[in-house]
Amino acid sequence: MAMYFHTFANICLIFLSSQVAAQVVVFTTDNAGYEFPKIVKSHAVSKTTMTNPGDLANRICRLTEETDIIGIAAAASDKRLYTLSTMATYLNIPIIGIGSRSLVYSNKENHPLFLRFAISESKQAKVILSLLQRYALYKFALLGSRSSSTEAFVRELRRLTSTSSVWEFVDYMTINENGEDVVEALQQLVIDDIRVVIIHCSPQEAAVLFKIAKQKDVLSQGYAIIATESLLTYNKSLLVHYPEGLISLRLIEHGNINDTFQDSKTLMNIAVNKVNVSFHNVGCQGIGRRRSKEGDALYRELLDTSFEGITRHVKFDKKGDLVGASYEIINLMANSKKNPSMHWKVVGKWNHGALSLDTLVWPGKKDRPFGIDTQRILVVTNVEKPFLYYAESSNFDCVTGKMCIETTNSDPLDITREIHRLKTVSENDEDISSRRCCLGLCVDLLNEISRDLDLNYDLYLVADQNHGAIENGSWNGMVGDLLQGTADIAISSFSITLERSEVIDFTAPFFHSGFSALVAKKKRELTFGAFLAPLHGSVWITIFMSAIVISFAITFFEWGSPYGLHPAGRNRKYIFGFPSALNITFAILFCHTIRTKPPKCMTSRTLLNMWGGFSVIFFASYTANLAAFMAGQMSYLHIEGINDPKLNSPNGDINIGTVTGSSIQSYLARLNPRLDQFMDKFVQPSTEQAIESLRNGDLDVFLYDSPIIDYRMLNDPDCKLVNVGSPFGEEGFGIGLPKGSTLKIPLSTILLQYEMDGRLEQLHRKWFDAVGCLKEDVLNPQTGGNDSSVTVRHVAGLIVMLILGIVTGFLLLLCEFAMHKWGVPHLRKRPRNKRNFLVISQRIHNEVNSGNTQSSSSNIKDLVALVKNGEFRKMLHKE
Question: What is the tally of helices (H) and strands (E) in the chain?
Answer without folding.
Answer: 28, 32
